[in-house]
Specification:
The chain has one domain: predicted glycosyltransferase like domains (Thrombin, subunit H, Beta Barrel). The protein has one helix and six strands, in the order E-E-E-E-E-E-H. It has a six-stranded antiparallel barrel.
Length: 115
């Protein structure tokens, strides 16, 4: 039996989102979300991201609309899987988010959670 050890329940989504890398904004698809993080998929530059030589991490902001509210959070890549030559899936841990965004995600997860 698979034991899911996540702190927060995940909700499957099909939301368009944007990743901000320096001055660039990249379109991505949000595959799932929770209060702890997101799974996104995208191509192009997202598929070839490398860790920072200084920190050994990849961090960026993710913006998306949820229930007619624009949300932004700072995230760290904790998982990266290549889906094809030009597409990758990235598991993100939320490292910064305001209280309004946290409340909106919590309400959305609770509303859509299937027990």
């Amino acid at each position: 039996m698979h034991d899911d050890r996540r702190l927060y329940p995940r909700i499957t989504t099909d939301l368009g989102a944007r990743v901000r890398l320096g001055q660039d904004t990249l379109p991505v698809q949000m595959v799932n979300l929770s209060l702890g993080g997101f799974l996104i998929e995208g191509g192009g530059r997202l598929a070839t991201l490398a860790s920072s030589p200084a920190t050994g991490t990849i961090e960026f902001s993710v913006s998306f609309e949820l229930e007619e509210q624009e949300l932004t959070s700072e995230c760290r890549v904790v998982y990266k899987r290549r889906l094809s030559a030009d597409k990758a899936a990235l598991g993100l841990k939320i490292i910064g988010m305001n209280d309004a965004a946290r409340a909106a995600i919590e309400a959305y997860v609770h509303k859509n959670l299937n027990y």
